[in-house]
Structures are given as C-alpha cells and as structure tokens.
Amino acid sequence: MRNNFLTLLILAITLLSFPVLSQTESDTTLLGLPGDNLDLFAVLELFQKSKTIEEFEKTLNTEKTGINNLDLNLDKKVDFIKVVTQQKDKDFTFILQVDVTEKEKQDVAVILVSKDKNEKVTLQIVGDKDLYGKDYVIEPKPATAAKSTANPAYKEPDPVVVTIPAPTTVVVVESAPIVQYVYSPVYVPYYPPPMPPPYFTAFAVVAIGVYHHNNYYYHGGYHGGYHGGGNTVVIHNTNNYNNYNNSRNTSNTVNKNNSNGNYNGNNNGNKASANQTKGSSSSARPSTTPSNNASKGSSASVRPSTTPSTGQSKGTSASAKPSTTPATSQSKGSSASSRPSTSPSAQPSKSSSMGSSSRSGNSSGARPSGGRSGGGGGRRR
Fold it and tell me: φ, ψ for residue 87 (rounded to 5)?
C-alpha cells in the first residue's frame, strides 16, 4: 500500500512539473523588447487562417484569441492594432499599426505577400526594428515531402521509394484562405477605421510569462525570428519591403519608453521614488533626542519629547496645552505650541501675560499662605 502511494505521489509531481518546464522553454525566446507582447508566429498563423483582411484585424484584437498583448502607451490596456494595406501589382504589404497617441503612429510589423512570374507565392512577416530588433523575419516552413524506403531491410540495387506526405502542421501558402482571397477577382481593399471600432473594448494586459506560455505552440510550423543571430531567413521581395520603408511610421513615445527600459517584462514604468520629499513634513514617531537649537519664528511640532526645558521663554507666548518639547536654549519670537507642557519654569516670565487670576498687578501663588491674608481679611482668633 505504501509503495502504491509513493508511486502516485511521484506521478503527480511529474505531471505538475510539465507546465513549469514548458514555461522555461518559452522564456528563452524573449527579446527584452516591446515585441515580446505580440508573438509574430501566432500572428502569421492567424493571418493564414483568416478569410478576409477585416476578419484578420477583428480576430487579432479579440481578447478571447489571446494573441494581442501589446501595450505601447503603457496604460496597462491592450492597444488596438489596425491593418493598413498597400498594393503594387501582385505584391501586397499589410502593415500592423498602433495609434500610440493622437499624433503618433507606430508600425509593429509588416506581412509581405508576393507572387512571382511562375505563380509561386511567398509569405513572410517582418517585425519592426524598434519592437523586435533587426532582421526579425518569420516564414512558414517549406512543405517538402520526405522520402524513405518501404522496407529498410530491402537490399536490392534499386530499392522501392515511396513519398510520405508532409506533416499536416505545415500550411501550404498558396492554399491559405487569405492568400486565395487577395488574389481572387472578388478581392476588395480594406481600409481600417480611424478610431477603434465599436466591437473593440480595451482589456488588461497579462503577464509576459503567461502570454508566452499560451502562444508558444504556434512556433512549430515556422522558422526564423531569432534575435541576436542565428536567423538565416531573408526577405524574398526586397523591392516590396524597401518601398514600405519609405513610408514607415515610428513613434517618439515608443522610442523614449524603449530607451528607458519601460517595456521590459511588462514593466509599465511604475517605479517607486527613492528620494524623500523636501519641505513641510510631519512625523508620527516620538523623539527622545533633546533639541539643542532654539526655535525661531512660528513653528509647530507633533513629536513629543521626554527632556525637560531649562531655558526661558522670551517674548509673547501663548500655550494652549502643556509642551513636552525639550529645549536647552531660548525660544525666540512668537511661538505657538499645540503640545502639553509638564516642565516647570526655572525663572519667572518677563513678558506681559494674562494669568488665571482675576486681579491685575501682583500675581498670586499656586499655594495658600500660612499667615494673614492681604486685603479684606478678618482677624484670626
């Protein structure tokens, strides 16, 4: 019984570790750039499955799809990505673009679709260098058929060779619905609205680790996109791409945030300040350190002290409550204290003040006299 329990425990731990391993694998593809929040592998997969450009734009910006997690203006909400179309003959350029501010636009990536004279279609997506770095190009893996012998033990000079179909995960570019649509007679150019359409509601961004874990499986049918070297994929139609670069849109806001590192790890730039506020301030902590300086001018303190006062109070002073503030020197000028005072005065006050006695002139003591009382008193018998 004990062995069965240990076996089940080990099996449970193994199953629970799979998501962690998968998460670690996906984190190796992080660029440390704002493009980490828009997986172009997933974008290209979605593009090929869409039937029209308008459908592609709508599905890309849907929260349920989980592909768009881009936040360039750092408002913690996912930005709406519009698709702008440029066409020259049989060359299409679909520009993924974000309105960062009312006056600034930032191109995120471009999808290049071209058809040569042999009717061969090429499809690539190129990330903008401000968001993905240089030469970030992704394309579908070529659908080449593998060859093998029907019977590996067959030793004759002319073995029988059979063709094994390509894996179903590889999409043939010419058969993609979106490719067939743009080259069909019914194709109509799509123009995105100037403002996000009514169906779009900005939703909150998710953590970068969760986002990559949810989209990493799209990488299987494509190659390229490696940042910092190792990418052998090159742009096929350089003329088409160069024409696009002549009108490429960049945002000063994005460049500034990128330089400050505000996009790293979904860090929206909410950094705590390490500097203290200078000027008027109050402290809630009690102080046990005596004050060696005189209080000059009007001042108010909320910190109690345990040190008695040995100095004189000169000038006009009004105390609403006894003060516990320690002072080894004199308080000069007009001072108002809101603190209770428990220390007796070492010397009489030399300033004009109003006491609690109903008579003016001579001040009365705190204790009654043991002899005769002055003024109007009777003779003691």
Answer: -140, 140
